[in-house]
Each structure stands twice: as C-alpha cells, then as structure tokens.
Amino acid sequence: MSTRRAWLASAAALPLAAVGQNKPAITLRFSHVVAEETPKGLAAKRFKELVAQRSGGRISVQVFPNAQLYGDHDEMQALQLGAVDMVAPSLSKFGRIGLPEFELFDLPFLFDDLASVRRLTQGRLGQKLLQGLSHQGLVGLGYFDNGFKQMSANRPLLEPKDFIGLRMRIQASRVIAAQMRALGAHPVTLAFSETHRALASGVVDGTENPVSNFWTQAMHEVQSDLSLTNHGYLGYAVVTNQRFWHSLRVADRELINQAMQEALAFANQIADAQNDNALQALRQTGSTRIHELSADQRVQLRRVVQPVQQQLAHRIGKAWINALQAALLQGVG
Ligand code: SIN
Predict the structure, then answer these.
(1) What are the start-end ranges of the E strands in 137-268?
(2) How many CB atoms lie within 10 A of CB 172?
(3) Range of 74's domain?
C-alpha cells in the first residue's frame, strides 16, 4: 500500500458506534467539500456516530464528503433551499453570501497560535458573528479549526519576490485575494474540488492550504515545493437551515447540538495532529520539497501583506476590525 493510502486507511479507522436497530425517523444530510480523513471529515464522522448512538438510530446523519453533492459554489444555496441540512464551509466562504465580516479570519499573520483563534471564536466576537447568520436564514452551531495555511508552487515561496507573477488558487475571499496581490501574485478563485486539476493542468501555478488538505487532495503529485509559511488561518463554521432547525423537537435539537459541540471539540483536538501526520507522510513520500522560512523571510512576507488590513477594512467593517484588535490585545473574545 502507498504511504498515502495507508495513512488514509488508518485515519478513517475510528471505532464504530453501537447503533440501535430503529429505522431513522429523521435523516440529516451533511455536505462538505474535503476528504473524509481531514479534521472536517473526521468531525462529521464523529458527529454522525454520536447522533446515531444517542438517538438509538432514530436520527441518522448522512455525510457527503469531497463535494459529492455540492461544491463551494452551491453548498450555501443548497442549504438555504433545504436541499441539505448542514454544511461546514471555511470562514473565508461566508463573504459570498453577504457576510464579509467573516473574512477577518483571513487577514494574514493575524494569529500567533490556535489558542488565540479559539478565544475569539468561543468569545463574544465569535458568537456575534454567528448571530449574523440569521439574516440569511441560517443558524451557526459553532466553529472548529483546521489550522494554519502553507504556500505551495513548483518553486519555493520564501520571500515576496518568489510570488511575483504566479497565478495562485484561492478561496472566494477578497481578503485572501488582496493578500496574494500584495505579494505580487495573481489570485484565481476556484472551488476547492477543482484545485488539483487546475494545478495539474497549469491553469494555476500554486495555492495555499493547511497540510492535511494538501496531502488528502494529493496536491503533492502536482506541486514540487511546499513552503511552511503559516501565514494565515483556516477554520470553519457549522451551519444549518433555520427552517429545518426549528422544525425539530426541542429535545432532538438539544441532542444534535450536544453531539455537534462534542464533534467540534474532537476536531479541535485532532486538527494539529492531522496536519503534523500529513506533513510527516509528505516527508516520507519525498515527492515534494519542504521549506522552512527563516525569521527574516517571515518578517519580509509579513511586512508586504501588512497593508491588507487597512485596504480591506471597509469590506470587513471597521467596527469588526476594532473589536478584533481589542480582543487580541486583551487576550479575550
Ligand atoms: C476546506 O477546507 O473546506 C476547503 C478549503 C479551500 O477551499 O481551500
């Protein structure tokens, strides 16, 4: 078995839940765009198991990974229309449904560690952001991490000059687009599910993502260099449709919500390890050169992207940026 296949098999081998024999009375469809062996895929699996276990099989969760049902361009719409009941898009993807304030998490070099992100998401600012989802007919159940993003291309990306002229695949976030422009690259917005093919065919030259996404999408087959820039954060919010949510009995809502909170805590526990394991597997495979940045190179990248915060303040909203800065300074949410 190849290193990648063995890794995927072991990551998927979580214990099976003991499930009752009841025929499901409620079936909840959970659609997402990444592989089953990522933090998001494993959280969805854990959620499904917990719900089945605690409802004795009365509530069942069907998980559709890898954009099998809907991709980045249509999953939110599918949720709003009730074609699926739950999705977990990255925070970068809420701007396109009229909630650009979520893009504040995309500001480059904003967070020193995941603990500071969690203080924000679990504090007042994070909860206020989730409340804004109600304007779109949605309910936010919580946040979870993937981790920090790295840059890849067919050359090392260590200093601003390395990015000049590269077409970099990005998510649909104006903040990430501005970050790539500040580095001298051309941002190209593409759905996650199209990224591998676009890299393989040369439609784009490079991309950014945490290592677990890079590895499980086999991007190492089409990118010769991965630079460990840790320049930005990738996290998710789990959202459901208000109509669906309020159609549930209170006790079922509580059961589902409790299972989700535990699945999110589980995802946060494993996210770092999933990225570390993926990096180790990548090193073993040896197909991609992995580069560490020197302190000076990191300072250079940081300096070049610094103006993005100012440039995008009008989009994110000055009040959100001020609240974020205050929370970061005080070490609270
Ligand atoms: C995801 O992790 O959900 C996808 C991230 C991306 O589109 O780059």
Answers:
(1) 138-153, 167-170, 186-189, 206-209, 225-241
(2) 19
(3) 19-330
Domain annotation covers residue 12: no
Q: Is residue 265 part of a domain?
A: yes
Report how far ligand 1's centroid is from the alpha carbon of 238 (Å).
14
- Name which residue sits closest to atom 4 of ligand 1, judged by CA: 192
- Ligand 1 centre distance from Cα of residue 312 (Å): 21
pLDDT tens digits, one per residue of 261-314: 999 999 999 999 999 999 999 999 999 999 999 999 999 999 999 999 999 999
**pTM of the entire predicted model:** 0.92
Q: Distance (Å, rounded) from C-alpha 240 to C-alpha 326?
A: 30
Distance 54 CA to ligand 1 centre (A): 30
What interhelical angle do 250-285 and 39-54 show, nearest 10?
150
Task: Please give the tally of structural domains in the chain.
Answer: 1
Tell me if 11 is assigned to some domain: no
pLDDT tens profile 129-165: 999 999 999 999 999 999 999 999 999 999 999 999 9
Q: pLDDT of 30-66, one tens digit each?
A: 999 999 999 999 999 999 999 999 999 999 999 999 9
Cβ–ligand 1 distance for 192 under 6 Å, the answer yes
Question: Does residue 303 lie within any of the structural domains?
Answer: yes
Q: Domain of 99: which CATH number?
A: 3.40.190.170
Ligand 1 within 6 A of 52 CB?
A: no
